[in-house]
Amino acid sequence: MFVIIKQNLNLERRQTMGGLKKMTEKGMTYAEAGVDIDTANEVVKSIKEIVAPTLTDGVKSMIGGFSAIFEVPVLAGQKSVRLHSSTDGVGTKLKIAFLMNKHDTVGIDLVAMCVNDLLVRGVPPLFFLDYLATGKLELGTTEKIISGIAKGCLQAGCALIGGECAEMPGFYREGEYDLAGFTVGAETAFSLGPDQKAQVGDCLIGLPSSGLHSNGYSLVRKICFEKLGLTVNSYIEEFGRTLGEELLEPTRIYVKSIMGLLEKVDVHGMANITGGGFIDNIPRMLADDAQAVIQSNVWSVLPIFSFLQKNGPVDEMEMYRTFNNGIGMVISVSNDDLFSTMNYLALIGEECFYIGDVEYLGKEKDRVVFR
């Protein structure tokens, strides 16, 4: 009886498999719907080679699994490890990459937008994950995007531990995609406490940006493309290069400079000058009774900001709320540590500016004022 049943099952299985083969030959496939699994597998193979240089000692898994594994180091004397996380995207700066057909730098922006947010608490990133969504995966384009992400991770000293490439036909325009990133870091002995803020009497030090970073691009595109009628190939004398090249300048990653500084100086607070500019970000680093008084003439404003303000025109306060205006990171230290902080930064080749002070909150209640 057992043998007969087994034979019947095998016959049924052969009939079923034959039916499936027949349906596949005549029916529709996932590839015909726009999703090419073979290309996706080739992308994963390519990514493994790109990611390999970023892997650190804590990585305990390889690219291609269902999840990633990272072993968080526990410092001597610690009973637990406090983790910090951040997520962000590149925003409409991607539109410039599409117009330029240049995709090898936006990955740096993606990493920077995430890790610089961790950094304001003095937390170095341990690992990074990315999410790439597009209508159709193109191996060459994907490799360039991931290579930029890997370069950003190397600059930040973190591992590119995993990610996702989603192919969604009909969801994005041809040649377009979106990027998101996620990072996790662990507190060190030099990290800032959750309630640590810049105090009245502190000095404010600014580290220069590389340009627009990844903020304000909707306004930038409106001014440059809609109002002025420029293209990404328009040569702009003030920039010494094309508009597209200027707009794709990657966001700076400050991890190595800041983490080195934290070992030397008692930093009271930091602000990443990202979306919201000076006006919305600096108050996040201040004690409740404090305001930041910024001396706006002590650093050289990059040509891109003067160009946008003039051609908008854009009101000065709107500039400070939309853009970084040449300062990407603000650090607060005591007056006693001002010289040693600037001296250390100079020694490691990091340009810096003494941009203002923290004072008692005035009657006007503005958290940031400019003089």
Give a written overview of the molecule:
- With 371 residues, the protein is of the alpha+beta class.
- The chain contains twelve helices and twelve strands.
- The chain has helices at residues 2-26, 37-51, 93-100, 106-119, 139-156, 217-227, 243-247, 255-262, 277-281, 303-311, 316-322, 338-347; strands at residues 83-89, 125-134, 159-167, 177-186, 203-208, 235-236, 241-242, 269-272, 290-294, 327-333, 353-360, 368-370.
- A six-stranded mixed beta sheet has the order 8-10-5-11-9-12. A four-stranded mixed beta sheet has the order 1-4-2-3.
- The chain starts with a helix and ends with a strand.
- Residues 1-24 have low confidence and may be disordered.
Short description:
The chain has 371 residues and is of the alpha+beta class.
Strand order of the largest sheet: 8-10-5-11-9-12
What is the H/E string?
Answer: HHEHHEHEEEHEEHHEHEHHEHEE
How many strands, which pairing sense, and closed or not: the largest β-sheet? 6 strands, mixed
Round the Cα radius of gyration to an integer and report it. Answer: 25 Å
* Rounded average pLDDT: 89
Task: Based on Cα principal axes, name the global outline.
Answer: globular
Count of beta strands: 12
Q: Approximately how much beta-strand content do the residues carry?
A: 15-25%
* N→C terminal distance: 96 Å
The parts where pLDDT drops under 50 for at least 5 residues are 1-24
| Helix-residue proportion | 25-40%
Class by helix and strand content?
alpha+beta
The tally of helices reads: 12
